[in-house]
Amino acid sequence: MKSKRLGSLVVASILAGTAFAQNPNVIVGDLLDVGNFGSSNNIAAFSWGTTSCNVGTANLTWISNTNQHPVIPQNCYRIHNGRFEQVGMSWLKHGFYALSQTLCGPCPTPTNGTSLGVGCSDPYTAGLNGDQGNGPRSEINATTGYFPFPYQLNPPVLTVIDRRLQIKHSDLSSASYPGATYLAEAQYIQPEDAMAGNDNDNASYRRVYFSASGGSYNSSFATGAGNLTVRTKAAIEGWPIYDPTVTLSTFDNPNDGRFIIARRVQALGNGLSKYFYAVHNLNSNLSAKAFTVNFGGTTTISNLYFHDVDYHSGEVYDGTDWTPTVTSNAVSWSTSDCTTNHNANALRWGTCYSFEFVANNTPVSTTITPFKPAIANGTCPPQPAPVSMGSYGATSAPYLVYTSAGTSGTVGPTGDDTSTTANIGFSFSFFGTAMTQIRIGSNGYVCPTAQNGNSYQNTGIPNVATPNGIMCGYWTDLDPSVAGSGQVRYQLVGSAPNRRFVVAYTNVYRYGTTQPENFQIILEETTNAIYFTCVSTSTGGSAGTRGVENLTGTVGTQLSLNQAGSMVAGTTTKLTMLPAGVIPPSANLSWTGPGTAGSTLLVRAVSKPNLPLTILVDGSAGPFVLPSNLGTLNLGLTAAMFPAVDGIGVFGIPDPNGKTDCVCGTYDILAVVPVGLSGITLYSQGVVLDSTAPNAAFHITTPVTYTFP
């Protein structure tokens, strides 16, 4: 179990004053051990332990239960009889805590586990990486590093092999593959690393050995020459080490990701040659729907072969083999288009497909055809922050502070990672639940008395893991017990019905440091408003969480998460419960084009990934009733509103892109301007069906006004 008291953990320093950009760069420094989990249905399950290293110039964020941590896929490949083939893959281990070790060199600035420090390393054993709570690959954008958390696809685990790295017994048989070489591979995907452009070196490989054992197979690593981890290279880049006749090339799709192409040629005589190709998608989100080998003239092509790898454990992708096509001067293999089948068997990130044929001519080029449409103007736009219906809205408020609470109030928790139960003095409604008592934690948050008030490890919110029902003025690892640290006190001020309950954290040191934090959490009678006041801060919000969460951890409002500059001295933020029926933003819209009747607009809607979308347009404002008993939107819409694009189907108007979000949470749709909208002000709304919200509620954007000529 990882603990904040393992080693000598101190607060990460901020690199400053340098003339170059500060960016993290996570690599696999070692594949350190193996996990053997037995078999089911003649399929064996394994895992590879990994040690990550940050070889960049800035810390790499590593926060559990958010989408700000690495995910770790594991793969296995076989080299035999001239072929390089992927024979196994795993689901994804989600990172949860980063130690500060020294595999790749000195670790000069250890961290508190919420980031991997510069030069530092962190081991995840095969047992951790083989956990059956791992997440799917299908929700990851490997180009941007973005993924939703918690992950949406979470089918039941039924057998010992589910979600682990799976390899068929038939692919490990020494009788079928005598003398085969197997390579284990692992990779790290993380948003900051991808944003910095440091994601082409995130995979490493190591030779792995398999042996039959009691109706299953066991794996093992060996030591010595030829058996150590090859850092920053995908396994396909190791093929030439074992077969020097293999040649490699890379294809970097602009604003997307990298493909690695390997080729081996075997002369057969009589003017014929056998060609072996392996194409590995390292981190391309657009993926590939076709691979074509082109010849300079008329060619006779025969003996076609294709090999992919099996998705498993309820992953959404279709595993249908690619269809070959032969012409007079080319051979190609392909799957369905994205708009026809979004879950078609595309060559997606972290997978390698193999191709083979015999020809009497020499290829002159190869072509990789993208599966998803390219994104206009380059890279994916930022994903909107997830905000759920029925949460709290946050606004700036006049500076509100009670100095007396911090000096003469009742003393609260005095120990490290401790809490105190206090009477509020009035009935306070929090997410609709009345409370007269509250638990005050030493680490910068308060919560209902039935919850854990002692947690030092902050996370993003909402988060179903305990503690729940938290009000975080600044949830960070504080320690009021050490000499020199300030205190936590609380006090009831004012007169009914306008009293306030104040919890003051006055110059309390962060754990293991002498860095003081000075802030207050204020609960207001009658209005049930919550105030967070920053009096002074030593970290500026870079080491903690601010916001509120409901009693089940399913709904919340996060003001900041380990965000430098988010806490400003002398400021107050007010949080109030949103009225029933008010639905906060979850999608952004932009329209380009002339806007005249019958003309074409490019509509870009940035929504949550892999969710359908409806865009509604109108020339006026007022309440609007959705069809099919889907509810009422009372945010400036009228019954005169009608859809321009419908990706959900409730209006019976198809999305021109096949009602599928194909590109990183973004729709790029060409919509025809309806007659009658010219010369008016157009209010456009994007409505996203959010399956994670209560009762499949709709989310809606803030209205944006467009004046058409």
Topology:
Elements: E1 26-40, E2 43-54, E3 60-61, E4 71-72, E5 74-80, E6 83-89, E7 93-94, E8 115-116, E9 121-124, H1 126-129, E10 165-168, E11 181-187, H2 191-195, E12 203-213, E13 216-220, H3 239-242, E14 247-252, E15 258-269, E16 272-281, E17 288-295, E18 301-307, E19 323-326, E20 330-334, E21 351-359, E22 363-370, E23 392-397, H4 403-408, E24 410-411, E25 419-430, E26 433-441, E27 445-447, E28 471-475, E29 487-493, E30 500-509, E31 516-524, E32 530-537, E33 545-549, E34 556-561, E35 571-577, E36 588-592, E37 600-606, E38 613-618, E39 624-625, E40 632-633, E41 642-646, E42 666-672, E43 681-689, E44 698-700, E45 704-707
Antiparallel strand pairs: 1-2, 2-9, 2-10, 3-8, 4-7, 5-6, 5-11, 11-12, 12-13, 14-15, 15-16, 16-21, 17-20, 17-22, 18-21, 19-20, 23-35, 24-29, 25-26, 26-27, 27-28, 28-33, 29-30, 30-31, 31-32, 32-35, 33-34, 36-37, 37-42, 38-41, 38-43, 39-40, 43-44, 43-45
Shape: elongated
How many beta-strand elements?
Answer: 45
Q: What is the end-to-end distance?
A: 64 Å
Structural class: mainly beta
Q: Strand percentage, roughly?
A: 35-45%
Strand order of the largest sheet: 23-35-32-31-30-29-24
Low-confidence stretches: 1-21, 375-390, 580-586, 620-640, 652-664, 690-698
Compute the number of helices: 4
Domain count, please report it: 4
Helix fraction? under 10%
Rg value: 28 Å
Q: How does the major sheet shape up?
A: 7 strands, antiparallel
Q: Would you tell me the overall average pLDDT?
A: 82
